[in-house]
């Protein structure tokens, strides 16, 4: 009895056979639902230079509670092969893998076993294997044909390498006599006929796989503003003149989105936090039917995301009068911004407020708010923040008509100041109402004449103007 138990543990094929026998014995009634199966290869030719896989697609109309599938692999002309373990840890023996993200992922426990291990590399005898098991969670949900399992192998070749085929067929291994599927009620049923003609075969060869070479002159750096999507064109060729294929292998650093077109156009859409980071896009290429991931040289593209430095000028403070509640206005001039920047203005100290769309500062002082008021503010584009400030001088406008240069008295210097302002683009008077000496509600040469007559001819005193 002890020997029999050991024998069962060390013979995986027997374990699966007993497992299938249990299923069939438990409920031999065939269901009416149609189950679809197909086996495909990604490439048209099986290469002897790199691993490949049989990809099993399953479509089911009912919730599957378990399954068992038997196949034979054979070559009529001596092609050899070796099974390769590529599955996650804990899968024994590991050459049949559940595809991550498929309906079977996380829902199914299985074992994959070669039933004739001695024949798997002799290229003559059929190589039988079977995999199956029960569902461990909610079962495999119904759905169309979907790639759920893969059997990984490495094909060998025969001389010359451009001849040979490798085939797979349903084996109908006893005791099941056919594929077995179980619904959640453990009712068994079989799929539609897989290959009435006796299997699927693929040519084995490709002794010289297509090797891509990156073209000289490809850019190594992409410099873009944080406002835009950048693009650079890469190119590669092959001596075999095969079609070239590209893909993004990895993106190191950065939080933006990288992509590449079939023609090799690499694009990167940054996010604001990318500014100043070291970002590297690793691009892989292949050609012909050669799969990605064979260690061909990659192209490393460095991305530099820029942000134009801001230049903030607080400008000049326009002085308003407190007695008539004129509004203080001050344009904050910001240079260097990018086209997509939406500037935010914030007063950190002092009175007044900003128009966020224009950057114009306004404040209406009260009748008693006379004096010098300091305003400190910040401007940010979301990446860089700068500070600046200015002073607002609020005076009693009834104080000093004619004091155009704001010195506290009226003399010839005020006339010179007005001449420079009117004719030479000099600085504007601090209090425009004081410069409007003839009170005609505008500051022009008439005010200069009026002021000169007052100073030199003792004419009428300057008036409190109405300029604003």
Explain what you see.
There is one protein chain. The chain is mainly beta. The protein folds into 3 domains: 2-205, Sandwich (Immunoglobulin-like); 212-306, Cadherins (Immunoglobulin-like); 311-394, Sandwich (Immunoglobulin-like), CATH 2.60.40. Helix content is 11%, strand content 36%. It contains 5 helices and 30 strands. Strands 2, 4, 7, 8, 10, 11, 12 and 13 form an 8-stranded mixed sheet that branches. Strands 1, 3, 5, 6 and 9 form a 5-stranded antiparallel sheet that branches. It is elongated, with a radius of gyration of 42 Å. Mean pLDDT is 79; it is low at 1-32.
State the main characteristics.
Immunoglobulin-like, five-stranded antiparallel sheet, elongated, mainly beta, eight-stranded mixed sheet, 5 helices, 3 domains, 468 residues, disordered N terminus
Q: How much β-strand is present in the residues? A: 35-45%
The whole-number mean of residue pLDDT values reads 79
Cα shape: elongated
Q: Which CATH architecture of the largest domain is right?
A: Sandwich
Q: Indicate the CATH topology of the largest domain.
A: Immunoglobulin-like
Number of helices: 5
Radius of gyration: 42 Å
Structural class: mainly beta
Helical content (DSSP H or I, runs of 4+): 10-25%
The separation of the N and C termini measures 111 Å
According to CATH, what is the class of the largest domain? Mainly Beta
> Regions with pLDDT < 50 over 5+ consecutive residues?
1-32
Largest sheet: 8 strands, mixed
Tally of extended strands? 30
Domains (count): 3
């Amino acid at each position: 009895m002890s020997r029999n138990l050991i024998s069962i543990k060390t013979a995986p094929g027997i374990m699966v056979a007993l497992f299938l026998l249990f299923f069939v014995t438990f409920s031999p009634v065939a269901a009416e639902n149609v189950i679809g199966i197909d086996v495909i290869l990604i490439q048209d030719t099986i290469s002897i230079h790199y691993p490949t896989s049989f990809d099993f697609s399953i479509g089911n109309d009912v919730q599957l509670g378990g399954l068992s599938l038997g196949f034979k692999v054979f070559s009529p002309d001596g092609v050899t092969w070796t099974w390769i373990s590529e599955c996650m840890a804990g899968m024994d023996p590991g050459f049949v893998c559940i595809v991550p993200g498929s309906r079977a992922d996380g829902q199914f426990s299985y074992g994959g076993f070669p039933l004739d291990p001695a024949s798997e590399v002799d290229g003559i005898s059929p190589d039988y294997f079977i995999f199956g098991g029960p569902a461990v969670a909610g079962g495999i949900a119904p759905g169309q044909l979907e790639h759920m399992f893969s059997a990984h192998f490495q094909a060998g070749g025969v001389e010359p390498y451009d001849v040979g085929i490798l085939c797979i067929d349903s084996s109908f291994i006893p005791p099941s006599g056919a594929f077995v599927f179980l619904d959640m009620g453990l009712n068994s049923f079989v799929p539609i006929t897989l290959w009435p003609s006796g299997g699927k075969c693929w040519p084995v060869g490709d002794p010289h796989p297509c090797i891509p070479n990156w073209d000289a002159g490809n850019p190594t750096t992409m410099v873009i503003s944080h406002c835009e999507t950048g693009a650079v064109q890469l190119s590669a060729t092959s001596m075999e003149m095969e079609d070239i294929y590209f893909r993004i292998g990895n993106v190191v650093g950065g939080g933006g989105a990288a992509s590449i077109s079939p023609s090799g156009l690499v694009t990167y859409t940054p996010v604001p936090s990318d500014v100043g980071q070291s970002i590297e896009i690793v691009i892989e290429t292949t050609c012909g039917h050669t799969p990605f991931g064979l260690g061909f040289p990659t192209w490393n593209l460095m991305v530099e995301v820029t942000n134009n430095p801001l230049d903030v000028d607080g400008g000049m403070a326009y002085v308003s009068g407190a007695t008539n509640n004129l509004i203080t206005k001050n344009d904050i001039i910001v240079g260097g911004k990018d086209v997509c920047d939406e500037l935010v203005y914030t007063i950190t100290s002092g009175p007044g407020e900003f128009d966020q769309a224009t950057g114009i500062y306004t404040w209406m002082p009260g009748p008693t708010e006379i004096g010098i008021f300091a305003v400190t503010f910040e401007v940010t584009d979301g990446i860089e923040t700068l500070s600046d400030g200015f002073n607002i001088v609020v005076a009693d406008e009834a104080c000093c008509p004619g004091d155009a240069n704001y010195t506290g008295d009226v003399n010839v210097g005020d006339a010179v100041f007005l001449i420079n302002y009117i004719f030479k683009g000099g600085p504007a008077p601090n209090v425009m109402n004081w410069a409007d000496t003839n009170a005609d509600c505008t500051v022009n040469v008439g005010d200069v004449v009026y002021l000169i007559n007052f100073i030199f001819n003792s004419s009428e005193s300057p008036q409190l103007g109405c300029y604003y």
